[in-house]
Amino acid sequence: MWLNHRKLIIIMFSILIPLFLSGCWDSREIEKRANVLAIGVDIASEEDRKKEDEISHLSKEFPTPDEEMIKVTAQIAVPGEIPLGPQQPGGSAKPVLVVEVVGHSFQDAMLNLQQEVANELFLGHLRIIVFSEDIARSGTSRFNDFLRRNPEIRRTASLVVSKEPASKYMNITPELERIPSLYLAELVDNLTALGKFPPSFIGLFWTIYSSKGQDPYLPYLELKGKSAIQLNGLAYFHGDKMVGKTNPLEIGVFMSVRGIGRGGYGAFAEVPGKDESVLVRTVSRNTRTKVGIKNGKPHVSIKIQYESEIDEKESAAIQLSDSAILKKIEKATSKDAKRSIEKLIATTQKTKSDIFGFGEHFRAKLPQYWNRNVKTKEKWDGIYQNLTFDVKVDSHIHRVGMKSK
Amino acid sequence: MSFFRKKKRTVKKPQLLTPSKLVSQKENTPTSSSLTETEKQIKDILGNNEDLKIKHFKIFGQFSAACVYFSSLVDKDSLNKDILKSLMYEPDHLMGKEKPLTQLIDMILTETIYHSEAKVGDSIDQLIQLMLRGETVIFIDGIKEAIHIGTRKVEKRAIDQPQTEQVILGPREGFIESIATNIALLRYRLPTPDFQVKTMKIGRLTKSTVAICYLKGIANETVIKEVEKRLSEIDIDAILDVGYLEQFIEDNPFSPFPQTQSTERPDKTVANLIEGRVAILVDGSPFSLLVPVVFNQFYQTTEDYSSRFLMGSFVRLARILALVFSLIFPSLYVSLISFNPELLPTEFAVAVAGGRAGVPYPAVIEVLIIEVSMEILREATVRLPKQVGGALSIVGVLVIGQAAVEAGLSSPITVVVIALTTIGSFATPTYTAAFALRMLRFPIMILAGIFGLYGVMVGVIFIFNHMLSLKSFGVPYMAPVSPSDYEGMKDVVVRSPLWWMPKRPDFLHPSNQSRLSENENKMLEHSKLGNDQREGTTDGGSEGNNSTSSHNDLN
Amino acid sequence: MGDPKEITALQATTILISTIIGVGVLPLPLFAVRAGETSAPFVTLTGVFLAAIGLMILTYLGIRHPHKTIITYSQDIIGKWLGKIFSIVVIFFFLILSSLTAREFGAVVVTAVLRETPLEVTVIVMLLLAAISCRNNINVFAYIHNLYVPMILAPVLIVVAFSLKNANLLYLRPIFLGNDLWNMAGGMLTVSALFQGSFIITMIIPAMKTPKKAMKASLWGILISGGLYLLIVIATVAIFGPEEIKQIFWPTLELARTTAIPGNILQRLDIIFLAVWVLAVFTTLFSSYYFTIHSIKELFRLKDHKVLSYFILPFVFFLAMAPQNVLHMYEIIQLIGRAGLLITIIYPAFLLLIDFLRSWRRKKNVAKPS
């Protein structure tokens, strides 16, 4: 008993002492980390390029990546400037630090950034990454590799495309939140909850991007005024390159084809026989996608059921007092929806971007066909371009609110 | 490792002839029939003591005798009235009878003396031992034997509320220092012939009475034997408290976890006896020691059982949470702050970073500093006189905490964390178990400082493995969780209703398992159906054989 | 054996579950998807099935020799020397298995959480933990597994349950993709190699209260652990799709990273998941380590295994440090895993066959004279 324990203690100590001596390798206090909250990526302009310093490579001796140089703008929380507990008024100092760097690749830019910041960069709280439209159009896969390799990056961080240079988003000063990037992140996160946008986060973007039968999509933001941000559409991709954007209402159309149940968009529907219209808002949708081979060609049939609600009517001329008129409105909205769906699919077909994931349906439901004719993403793109489809929309208006007329 | 041991000294010191040695020399020496000689013998040994009294008197006015006692230990009232008076006056029924010297002792014991504990003894060492325990010895001239009478009376305090284990609902009695009273407290709750008390004397100097109490037919025989064996192997000069015994009989003395439970509460002791445990009492200690124990009983209180089961379960859950808190909360904090701040919500993380901005030390050091000062504060508060203690604890917590934050020594959140931890450790009802966890908090904190959450996990696994390897008198320490036991599990996290636990926990290997009789059980099932379904039956309720009248139990 | 035979069927089941669930949880979907794309769940199922057959054979053998471990009864069946040689191979295999478990664990920790801590340190801490715990007797061994099983199962189930919000059932179809049968068979072997820990049953049976119940225990053990593995594969495939999984080293970990608890109590589940996964790794390592030293003890008829537990520590450690990097490590793991199937399935099957033949012959011999 004695002997064993003494031995055990001696062994424990001989192992523990070196541990103490060498210390805590990964221990980095929270306030000693430079918490990067948001990152904006732009294409570096001519003058930005000059600022580049030789940090990860020496200009001539090492190969420089031949891709375009990027400008990364990072928003970093400054410890001590963000008060604990209820916010005290005043506090003139800015709670965040915005740093701009250029680099050949993402990691290169991050290394450059580290040179400029005293504390170690920490990406564990990176909530949002903004790509400017130019960057998105030139291809996003060059950034993905770094983001995926780094274990600190959250898979649930948001990824958005901006109309303006992304650096502008890092410098906005929203009035509702002290930390601008948190406001931005919350805004984007809430889009899904409000039914304004299908679920979209960086992990989902990667997942969609890597699967063969679909193309990714991202929210497309636009600045309105100094600090207001608007969701201005859906940026759709072909592979890793953005190829176009929809207008905001078409996001709703997209969601219904994609089969996202939660509705959030409303549209004016003309009341048949009158010149006036009512605002019909989608509450929920139910989508059925069937794929098949028609005349030897792949064919998709989509069947959508809308549950809607009348939110508002434009003028007193419309009498919403019997169910017959609701039926008519239903019909009108169905027709409108069908038209816009067909239009949206046709547009994406032109750019070969299957954001609806029809390819996945083919792969899953017709594996023989897929194995024989498709197999690769490139082939599917070609097929998608000439895909035939039919759309069937059925809308129901169940609620009209608290007003009886 | 023999080099650690010193060589035995062979030089012998000249032996001092102490009274105890004199007594042991006189082992089994019969008392002399001559009163003066006996008196001299006793005076040789105990003569120096002021409180040794020898009173000469004449029994029935004719036989000269002496009663010897320690005035500090005996009940003088009883000595005067019951013994001296009855011996000095020749009673009526003996008047005129012939009183030969040979029958005198018998006559005194059976016909004269008014005392229940009168016996005959004849060896001098034994009589001296008895005197030292407060008996009065009567030597009669011409007779070899002596009479010793139990006249012991020691001042004892009144039965009081147990200080360390207070309850809101439940009995208010606590053990006191006198073992006789303590056994009385147990017997009064267990009026059954199965309740057995075995006594032995341990301690060369103190000769403390140690009582092993158990319920025959419920407690496991091997456990009883094992307890007796371990106790009888103890050879020490003094046993001043059950704590001394605990250290000799526990299975793994190096473990931080207590392997016996000591309690001040008779009701708790009885409850444990009924579950099949063995209680050990020591004269002079207001605690009883319960074996075998399992870990989960350290966070249980008697209150859990006396209150309704929902309430009991809820309180118990809170207590378990507090237990976990007191063990790992600071280390979790350290690993979140220093290793994985990404786990915190962003807003909070940024705010915490702000709070810590002025603190010069890493979180581990900071937490360790505050923890250690908290321990000092706590220890100081225990030692302080009551009137000052309250003031100091408020000063300590409020002022020092506030000052530490303002001085930039710690961040406000650290103070919150440590405060929660400290309070959490008070929620564990058993002091010894709470202490073990308090102590183990430090190594885990250090591990957290080196490896973050991984370190915490390693520490916790290590502690769990250690606990799983412990045994208390053959019972695995973590039973009934692992090895799992269905009956026992009903009383671990939640306290199941009493009618749900018809069996005693199996892990104690009780000889008799059933707690509720089957008949009783059915009746309970029945009454649980609710009132509306009971209408048809007329015999509900009063069939139990618990008679409610006639016994005059209420005094 | 001085220890009382106290292990119950429930304890045996929990030992199997927690031994099987280990480091393999993290890369499992990757292995399965590499082999079968969308039919990864099917591959997993066949793998579990194969492992179950192996376990049944082992259990049956154990029940036929209820007082002996495979080290001792193999000597009865195929002769003393041959038995000893095979036993040494088995011991050596488990030595390697222990070291690879520790190494794989270290690799994950160093890559995902403690990026600057030396690999050696994380590995040695884990090995020490196992070595110290191995000093206990076999009943405590059972208690330890018994306690940890719910703690291992719960977080996995929680992560799976919360993650299903983002599931896309299309990724799971077609269930049977018959593209490359050879590849699928290979995947099946890789998956069933993850179940090699179930070999521990040979050590458990002699310590069981009623060895007859061992069959029930192993059935439940493989059912629960196999079910959990299947669930993980289904969840990861449904969320990431086969193509994405191919790009991730540890899809299960990534699953935890993608999952958020409603209410945002904790921003990321992956660290918590990893912390609990330490438990799973510990139990696995503990089992293989214990098996190794216990078998050495049996083979050389030693009295006590306690000293051995520190004695083999350096060997395990150096073996663990052998692979150069993560990629190299996984190549070795797959190789050793498949080779190990020879030891964990074919060898027992061979033993069982001979055992049958022998008892059949014995019966005939008994029948003849009468």
Explain this structure.
Chain C: InterPro entries: Spore_GerAB. Chain C: It is a multi-pass membrane protein. Chain C: Keywords: Germination, Membrane, Transmembrane, Transmembrane helix, Transport. The complex is a heterotrimer of chains A (405), B (555) and C (370). Chain A is α/β, with parallel strands linked by helices. Chain A folds into 2 domains: 30-54 and 65-81 and 93-245, no CATH class; 249-399, GMP Synthetase, Chain A, domain 3, CATH 3.30.300.210. Chain A contains 13 helices and 13 strands. In chain A, strands 1, 2, 3, 4, 5, 6, 7, 8 and 9 form a 9-stranded mixed β-sheet that branches. Chain A has a 4-stranded mixed β-sheet with strand order 10-11-12-13, sandwiched between helices. In chain A, helix 9 (248-258) crosses helix 10. The relative contact order of chain A is 0.10. Chain B is of the alpha+beta class and 555 residues long. Chain B has 19 helices and 12 strands. Chain B has helices at residues 19-25, 35-46, 76-88, 101-112, 124-132, 179-189, 221-232, 242-249, 266-275, 302-306, 309-338, 346-356, 363-383, 386-406, 412-426, 431-451, 453-469, 486-489, 518-527; strands at residues 52-59, 63-70, 118-121, 135-140, 146-150, 195-202, 208-215, 261-263, 278-282, 288-291, 471-472, 475-476. In chain B, the strands form 3 sheets. Chain B has a 5-stranded antiparallel β-sheet, sandwiched between helices. In chain B, strands 6-7-9-10-8 form a 5-stranded antiparallel β-sheet, sandwiched between helices. In chain B, a hairpin with a 5-residue loop joins strand 9 (278-282) and strand 10 (288-291). Chain C is an all-alpha fold and 370 residues long. Chain C has one domain: Amino acid/polyamine transporter I (Up-down Bundle). Chain C has 15 helices and no strands. Chain C has helices spanning 9-20, 28-36, 40-64, 70-78, 80-112, 119-133, 138-163, 181-193, 201-204, 214-245, 251-258, 270-299, 306-311, 313-320, 326-367. In chain C, helix 1 (9-20) packs across helix 7 (138-163) and helix 5 (80-112) crosses helix 6 (119-133). The longest helix of chain C is centred in the last third of the chain and has 42 residues, at 326-367. The relative contact order of chain C is 0.22. The model of chain C has no long low-confidence stretch (mean pLDDT 87). Classes of the chains: A alpha/beta (405), B alpha+beta (555), C mainly alpha (370). The interface between A and C is medium-sized, with 29 and 40 residues.
